[in-house]
């Protein structure tokens, strides 16, 4: 690899990291220092901003709420998507191609379109402001995504394995759980990661479907804006804390990330 | 893989179908229902036919935000696709550096969208942000909150920051799928770097590039959170895109009828474009 290529890559990585460095830098400063002037490193290093978040229930409960509905969403999506992806990868059936395209359109549907009807649907069945409502709403895009990614991984498993297992006397459920699922373990991991991620980064639906009990962290963050101005330090600290979960889980799926983003189509 | 024809497979798909139908078809029917009625309160509603559609289609707000949306999505594609390809070509192929690159590049993709907005909001401010401060120190009068051009550039740069990695990661995995034999053959033929790119790398990246274009187009077409946090749609309406116009109408002013009609028009545009992309994708698969 020549020097010019390295320079381009280094510049790009720098471009990616500088805004994050600035956020991190700011989260360790007091508000007086932030507004007082530009410093490239916290002169007066403080953890006070993080302390606010970890001691105030309305802050840390936001994180717990988010994690709760995100995990719920991941579990629901995987449970329903596994058999469906198997069906798509192994069988042809009436309307399969149309169904597949229909699933894709849901991934492409703008959440803004569903805002109002979702609000009324979940209010009318008494699920407004519950974690399950947000989890179900996020299924709109996470289930199609899960089916697509899993189907990509499952198509890579030779069909002879299924046939051999049936000849050996395995029933379908037993074969599926005991043999097939372990075979596509990495695929399931990647799918779980993507369901987690897309549910974690979404704001619009999560904010609309909750008010108090299930309020997600992304909505709590708007609290830092008050009459006396914006509490920049706490806002930055809250931002840093929302980046952490993604960074923790990405390590495990680093080699499959691209395949997941390509909806299993690489 | 040759698949067996078996309609019993429907039983396996049924849970997905029911779940997605619950989240997609029921709300969609509600929208259709609203779009043809004038609703004063839950008990007083009048059927108005296609009036809302006529009103919405002539609404200058829709025209303006639709135009802005197309310009924005066009700019996003024009910048991110070539840049993503270029970055993918420079990435190391194996070893620790490759893993590190992948992880660093994936970071922006994993940040909640409103936090992306917040990061750039802080970063771009002239008083407390590194970018805004440096630009102003360099003698450029930069303020994304009051200057239309600056707001546009900031929103675009933010999108490039947020999503170029996706294009790069996709192209990277496409490049990894090229066997070494191809490169060896090219070396024997003394092919130039451009010829290698044009005749080996680009054709092999075609399918992933289609996915990248599809995803980037769709996601930029329904962008809401990031500009909402960064500029709030301003200055004026300069960065108010389709989703935001719609949300203002539905939640802000509670104009259910026009908002519903607007939603359906918006959804139909997206549906038409996805269908075009999907057909292109499946065609590319067939010709491979």
TrEMBL record, chain A:
It is found in: Cell membrane. GO terms for biological process: transmembrane transport. Keywords: Cell membrane, Membrane, Transmembrane, Transmembrane helix, Transport. One of its GO terms (cellular component) is plasma membrane. It is a multi-pass membrane protein. The keyword Protease does not apply. The chain crosses the membrane at residues 7-24, 67-88, 100-119, 131-154, 175-201, 232-253. Its main location: membrane. Residues 63-253 form the ABC transmembrane type-1 domain. PROSITE patterns: ABC_TM1. InterPro entries: BP-dep_ABC_trans_perm, MetI-like, MetI-like_sf. The keyword NADP does not apply. It comes from the Bacteria. CDD domains: TM_PBP2. Belongs to the binding-protein-dependent transport system permease family. MalFG subfamily. This is Sugar ABC transporter permease. It comes from Pseudomonas taeanensis MS-3. The lineage of its organism: Bacteria, Pseudomonadati, Pseudomonadota, Gammaproteobacteria, Pseudomonadales.
UniProtKB/TrEMBL annotation, chain B:
GO terms for cellular component: plasma membrane. Gene3D superfamilies: MetI-like (1.10.3720.10). Keywords: Membrane, Transmembrane, Transmembrane helix, Transport. It is found in: Cell membrane. Residues 66-277 form the ABC transmembrane type-1 domain. InterPro entries: MetI-like (IPR000515), MetI-like_sf (IPR035906), Sugar_ABC_transporter (IPR052730). The keyword Oxidoreductase does not apply. Pfam families: BPD_transp_1. PROSITE patterns: ABC_TM1. PANTHER family: GLUCOSE IMPORT SYSTEM PERMEASE PROTEIN GLCT, TREHALOSE TRANSPORT SYSTEM PERMEASE PROTEIN SUGA. Belongs to the binding-protein-dependent transport system permease family. This is ABC transporter permease. It comes from Pseudomonas taeanensis MS-3. The lineage of its organism: Bacteria, Pseudomonadati, Pseudomonadota, Gammaproteobacteria, Pseudomonadales.
